[in-house]
Amino acid sequence: MDLLHLFKLQKELDERILREHGLEPKKLLKEKMLALLVEVGELANETRCFKYWSNKPSSERSVVLEEYVDGLHFILSIGIDLGVDKNFLFYKCAETDTTTVQVFLDAYSKIIRFQEQPSITNYIELFTSYLRLGQTLEFSQDEIEQAYLAKNEVNHERQTQGY
Ligand SMILES: O=c1ccn([C@H]2C[C@H](O)[C@@H](COP(=O)(O)OP(=O)(O)OP(=O)(O)O)O2)c(=O)[nH]1
């Protein structure tokens, strides 16, 4: 996954959203943190991994993947505000032998920790936990990258249409 390229596309999209909505290029960190928490909740809902009371299966893989890359958009956007977008290198996170529910809870706790203390170390921890979540959901890096590019385009189209 070419993260530096994704950061660049994210920056273009974020700048466009600010422009179209007449917002100052001020940081919207709190709003982005809440948006990310909501996206992780939407993702968990689509997987249904915690719904021990139901036999209904997970949503289609493509639906889950789109939710996943919505969260990735906000994580990249937060990284840009933090100033790490020019030199952030992806390193493969170790495979973990744990449940999907636990991986979701870990991602939540890393997001909250970063929100309380927005350091680069905590950002890397957050990013890593989100990549681990992608691995747990069995998405390849290539699939994630392609889905990110597709949703990024949709986000631009929405701005064109005055979303
Ligand atoms: O500064 C921003 C703000 C938003 N987004 C992207 C992230 C995500 O891909 C999308 C917002 O999520 P979604 O598509 O779920 O938006 P929604 O307005 O909640 O749509 P829906 O009601 O269809 O879920 O916009 C950014 O990249 N940068």
Automatic annotation (TrEMBL):
<dbReference type="Pfam" id="PF08761">
    <property type="entry name" value="dUTPase_2"/>
</dbReference>
<dbReference type="InterPro" id="IPR016947">
    <property type="entry name" value="UCP030140"/>
</dbReference>
<protein>
    <submittedName>
        <fullName>dUTP diphosphatase</fullName>
    </submittedName>
</protein>
<dbReference type="InterPro" id="IPR014871">
    <property type="entry name" value="dUTPase/dCTP_pyrophosphatase"/>
</dbReference>
